[in-house]
Specification:
This protein is α+β, with helices and mostly antiparallel strands. The chain contains 20 helices and 20 strands. It has five domains: 38 residues, no CATH class; 220 residues; 83 residues, no CATH class; 51 residues; 77 residues, SH3 type barrels (Roll), CATH 2.30.30. A five-stranded antiparallel β-sheet has the order 19-18-17-16-20. A four-stranded antiparallel β-sheet has the order 7-8-10-9. Helix 3 packs across helix 5 and helix 4 crosses helix 5.
Length: 556
Amino acid sequence: MAELVDTGLVAAPDAEHVLVPREVALVVRGGRLVDAPLDETTSTARTLSPDDVDRAATAAATELVALVDELLDHLDETSPRVLRSGGMAVRDLRSLAGRVDLDEPATTFLLELALGAQLLADDHALEPTWRLTSVVDEWRARSTADRWAALAGPWLDSLRASVVPAPEDGGRVNALSEGMVWPPVRALRHEVLDILAALPEGSAPDLEEVMRRLRHRRPRRMPHGADEAVAALLREGEQLGVTGRGALGSFGRLLTTDAARAGQHLAELVPEPVDRLLLQADLTAIVPGTPVPELAALLRRSATLESRGGASVHRFTETSLRAALDAGWTADDLLDTLSRYSAGPVPQPLDYLVRDVARRHGQLLVGAAGSYLRSDDPTHLEALLTHRELSHLQLRQLAPTVLVSPVGPTVLLEALREVGSAPALEGPGGVVSSRPGAPRITPRRARPVTEIAPEPSDEVVRRLREGEARADRQRALPHDDGPVIPALDPASSAALLREAAADRLPVWLGVTDAVGATRRLLFHPTSIDGGRVGGEVDAVHQVFSLHRITGVVIDG
C-alpha cells in the first residue's frame, strides 16, 4: 500500500481510508463508467469454416469485377443521359438492370462503385450523358484483385449510399444523383465492419444481432433510417466480397486498414487467369475461368456474353462480329487471333460466319460532307484536286466527276472563283440556283405609343402656379392653436430639427403624404440620420423623410 501511495496511484487521507483517483479507477475498469460491460459476450451468430467464408467471398469478389466490367460495356453502348436535376433516369436504370440481370438496388450499387472508382462520369456536354472515363482502359488492364481493390477502397470511405432515407416530399432519389450523398453512412459502414471483425473468425451474425450491437455502441447516435441503411450495407458487403455467407472474409478484415493489402491477399485466393477458350460449333466460346485482359478485350469486341460463373459463355453473332470489323479488325486477323487462344481449330461454322460478315461489311459507306463539286469534265476536277491554293478545302474525289469538301457551299464557291473558276450553285433538286442572300430577320414590333393632346403651355404654367400659391396659403394657416409654418428647403429643415433634437424641444412640422396632401404635426425629434428624422407624435414613434417635410417651427 505504501508503494501505491508513493507512486500516486492511491491517496491515504488517514490510517483507515484509501482513496482511488477517478483516472486510475477508469483505467482499472477498462474505461467503463457503468457496471454493465460495453462489449457483449453472447452471440447468436452462425459459425462457418473460415475456408468456406474465403471461398464464398472470393467468388463474390470475382463476380463483382465481372459485373462492373459488363455494366461498363452497356454504358458505353447506350450513353444514358444525365437528368437536369442530376443522376440517371429510372428508365435507363431499369434497362441496365435488365441487361446485367440484377435488381435495381444491386445495379445502383454497381453504378456507385464505378462512380467512386472514377470509371464513370458526367461528360458535361450541352446535352450531358454518362460516359466512361479514360481510367477504364487502365483498370481493365490490371489483375482481378487489383481491380477489386480499386472498387472496394473508395467504397469504404465514400459518403454516398446505394440506399438512402426517403426524402420528406416522398419523391424518389435517382441513382448517381447528389441525393445519394448521406454523410452518416461512412461511420455506419466502418462500425458495421468493426462489429463483424470483433466477432470470432467465421461468425455470421444476422441483421438483428448487428443492429443490437450497433445500438449498444451508440445508444444515442443512431441516425434516422439506420435499420434500412445497415441492411443495405450488409448486402453490399456480400456483393462486394467483403463478407462470404454473412461472415467477414480474411481479405475483408484487411480492407478496413489497407485496401492495397486486401487486394494482395485476394490475389493469393483468386485462381490464375486463363488464356485459353473452347470454340464450339454452335458459335459459342467457353472460357474456363477469368480470362486474361487481352482475351477479355477480344471477346468484348467480337462476342456477346451469354452467362457468367466459374466458366463464362460467349456467343458470336453477326452484330458482334460487325462491331469487331468496325473497330478495325479484318476477317483474317480475327480468325488468327481466335485460333491462337483456342484449344483446338476454329470450327467451320464460325470461320464461315466471320468471312461472310466481312465480305458484306463495308459494301455501303456512309460519311458526311459540307459541300460537293461535280462536273462533266474529269480533267477540270483533277486540276482543282491538285491545285495548291485549294488545299485548305480538303477536296476528296468520290468519282471521276464528283469531289466533296468538309467546308460549306458558300466557302467552296468563293474559293473556286478566287482561282479563276466559274462555278454555279446547285440547289437541293439539282437545279442551278442563284446565290442565296443573307437571311431576313423579323423586325421587332414597336410598342404602341398613346398620343396625348398637348395643352397650351401658358395654361399649364398658370395652373401650376395657382396650385403652389394655394398650397402656400394652406400651409401658412394656423391650426390647433399652432404657429404658421413657413416653407423651408430640406437643408434648413434638417438644421432646425437637429437643434430641436439636441435641446429636446418639440417642433411643428409640415409634412406631405404620398398624394401630396399637407398635414401639421407636433413632433418631438430624437435623431436625424441618412435623410430621415425619427421622433414621437402623440407618444408614438414615427420616421419621416426630409424631402417630405415642407417646413419646421420650434414650438414655444
